[in-house]
Amino acid sequence: MKVSRFAPSPTGRLHLGHAYSAVIGHDLAGESGGTFLVRIEDLDQTRSRAEHVDGIFEDLRWLGLDWAEPVLVQSQRSEVYADALDRLRAMGLVYACYCTRADIAAALAAPHGPAASHYPGTCRDLPEDAARRQAQPHSWRLDTAKALALAGMPSWREGGTTITADRADLDDVILARKDAPAAYHLACVIDDSASGVNLVVRGADLRSSTPVQRLLQTLLGLPEPDYLHHPLVRHDDGRRLAKRDLAPTLAAMRAAGVDGRQFAHALKHGELPAGFRLRDA
Length: 281
Ligand code: GLU
What we know:
Number of strands: 12
CATH superfamily of the largest domain: HUPs
CATH topology of the largest domain: Rossmann fold
Shape: globular
Bound molecules: glutamic acid
Strand order of the largest sheet: 1-2-3
Helix content: 25-40%
CATH class of the largest domain: Alpha Beta
Number of helices: 10
Structural class: alpha/beta
Number of domains: 2
């Protein structure tokens, strides 16, 4: 039985691409007699809005999808993430990083798109300095080299095959920052495990997140889920769905009288409205 999840960030209204992801995850769980979960990924408090959380539930109901409770809300789970970070720190796998806020904001933001260039390692070998940590905002990064020495190169199962990561796929990602207890990767693996997710369904734009997440799972002794990185909904000309491209929100479709259940049924069969298509990346 599959336990899948849809894990939107409430930074805007859901659009066609979100609907596709939710429908695929919901159906794979349902077909196996399993469970579909929803998780609210609102760690980026500068961009997350409560009204978008309400909108997510409204949109999913309109699609005819049902989900099991509880809905995990990441902003309410700071202590769980802090514990996990403590464990990694105790293993000597984490270091304080004092690099600019711009770096940190990028790491906390939605994890889509090509992997940013690797962290240059500026703070990796700084001497332990508790006084500086007290005085100066900092984040915590994973020491990838040490983590790999302990856990080995990560691999994951997808569509019946096992894929092994490359060293270049892994970076000293930010795990937490001083004013936010966890960044995306750490929160994601903790929550997937806490909810018993055994099938991670998400877009191909998040495939680059999987190596480091598998590494964190191994380090923290968490179970290994299966993965499905599905094709992405794009405009016919290949553009990503984005607000500036006037991607239709589900709210707008609902307001225009579209039947949500029929729409979800069509999506399940890969039938998209005119002007859109599925692309692998
Ligand atoms: N919160 C992420 C997003 O909205 C999804 C993360 C995931 O599915 O692992 O794109």
